[in-house]
Amino acid sequence: MLFTEHNPALRTKPAGSIEVICGSMFSGKTEELIRRLRRAQIARLDVEIFKPKTDTRYDETAVVSHDQNSIHSTPVESSSAILLLGANSQVVGIDEAQFFDDELPEVCTKLANKGIRVIVAGLDMDFLGKPFGPMPALLAIAEDITKVHAICVRCGNPASYSYRTALSESKILLGEKESYEPRCRSCFAEG
Ligand SMILES: Nc1ncnc2c1ncn2[C@@H]1O[C@H](COP(=O)(O)OP(=O)(O)O)[C@@H](O)[C@H]1O
Ligand SMILES: Cc1cn([C@H]2C[C@H](O)[C@@H](COP(=O)(O)O)O2)c(=O)[nH]c1=O
Ligand SMILES: [Zn+2]
């Protein structure tokens, strides 16, 4: 009997999968997402990249890192649009996943089941340290999870939390260094 796991040449189906890149703000999620997507483009794979329409922080269309590294993307209003627009590609990238609706995990599952490599980046926790939007469900169904860390601006230890310095209490508040700082557990708890 021939086992395809030992002989990749015999595999006929593309292996779809879900990868999640998570962590605090400034931890390098977008950079890591862009790195993986660029490599897929170099491999001449058909790549589609999406972000929520509401995320206009650096650019209307591009996915942009805090260091101004960028890649073209399609802003969409809901996760159902990702299913429609991404279904014929080989690799789908999604940034700022925490802002999407609760259907995003189901959308990613459908795409992965079609053989598509789905790479999702997002904040695992909000400014209160609570799980953010569809991220916990995405982490549960992912084949591969990468948790990246920023540097705590208070003490220099690895940071997993996004501390909000702005006064707003609303869950969604777009911003960067003027409103947030990455902190380690202990500095986050000090408030
Ligand atoms: N406190 C910090 N810790 C780590 N990186 C920081 C910090 N402040 C600024 N940066 C910059 O942010 C970059 C990461 O940006 P980005 O990939 O957009 O992060 P994320 O998407 O996780 O918010 C780092 O490469 C670094 O240059
Ligand atoms: C913690 C937290 C963050 N946000 C916003 C702030 C930024 O616009 C994005 C995160 O971007 P990054 O690429 O991870 O730096 O999310 C928010 O709206 N609510 C929060 O609690
Ligand atoms: Zn600290």
TrEMBL record:
<keyword id="KW-0237">DNA synthesis</keyword>
<feature type="active site" description="Proton acceptor">
    <location>
        <position position="96"/>
    </location>
</feature>
<keyword id="KW-0547">Nucleotide-binding</keyword>
<comment type="similarity">
    <text>Belongs to the thymidine kinase family.</text>
</comment>
<dbReference type="Pfam" id="PF00265">
    <property type="entry name" value="TK"/>
</dbReference>
<keyword id="KW-0963">Cytoplasm</keyword>
<comment type="subunit">
    <text>Homotetramer.</text>
</comment>
<feature type="binding site">
    <location>
        <begin position="172"/>
        <end position="175"/>
    </location>
    <ligand>
        <name>substrate</name>
    </ligand>
</feature>
<dbReference type="GO" id="GO:0005829">
    <property type="term" value="C:cytosol"/>
</dbReference>
<protein>
    <recommendedName>
        <fullName>Thymidine kinase</fullName>
        <ecNumber>2.7.1.21</ecNumber>
    </recommendedName>
</protein>
<keyword id="KW-0862">Zinc</keyword>
<keyword id="KW-0808">Transferase</keyword>
<feature type="binding site">
    <location>
        <position position="152"/>
    </location>
    <ligand>
        <name>Zn(2+)</name>
    </ligand>
</feature>
<feature type="binding site">
    <location>
        <begin position="95"/>
        <end position="98"/>
    </location>
    <ligand>
        <name>ATP</name>
    </ligand>
</feature>
<dbReference type="GO" id="GO:0008270">
    <property type="term" value="F:zinc ion binding"/>
</dbReference>
<dbReference type="GO" id="GO:0046104">
    <property type="term" value="P:thymidine metabolic process"/>
</dbReference>
<feature type="binding site">
    <location>
        <position position="184"/>
    </location>
    <ligand>
        <name>Zn(2+)</name>
    </ligand>
</feature>
<dbReference type="InterPro" id="IPR001267">
    <property type="entry name" value="Thymidine_kinase"/>
</dbReference>
<feature type="binding site">
    <location>
        <position position="187"/>
    </location>
    <ligand>
        <name>Zn(2+)</name>
    </ligand>
</feature>
<feature type="binding site">
    <location>
        <position position="155"/>
    </location>
    <ligand>
        <name>Zn(2+)</name>
    </ligand>
</feature>
<dbReference type="InterPro" id="IPR020633">
    <property type="entry name" value="Thymidine_kinase_CS"/>
</dbReference>
<keyword id="KW-0418">Kinase</keyword>
<dbReference type="GO" id="GO:0004797">
    <property type="term" value="F:thymidine kinase activity"/>
</dbReference>
<dbReference type="GO" id="GO:0005524">
    <property type="term" value="F:ATP binding"/>
</dbReference>
<dbReference type="GO" id="GO:0071897">
    <property type="term" value="P:DNA biosynthetic process"/>
</dbReference>
<dbReference type="InterPro" id="IPR027417">
    <property type="entry name" value="P-loop_NTPase"/>
</dbReference>
<feature type="binding site">
    <location>
        <begin position="23"/>
        <end position="30"/>
    </location>
    <ligand>
        <name>ATP</name>
    </ligand>
</feature>
<feature type="binding site">
    <location>
        <position position="180"/>
    </location>
    <ligand>
        <name>substrate</name>
    </ligand>
</feature>
<keyword id="KW-0479">Metal-binding</keyword>
<keyword id="KW-0067">ATP-binding</keyword>
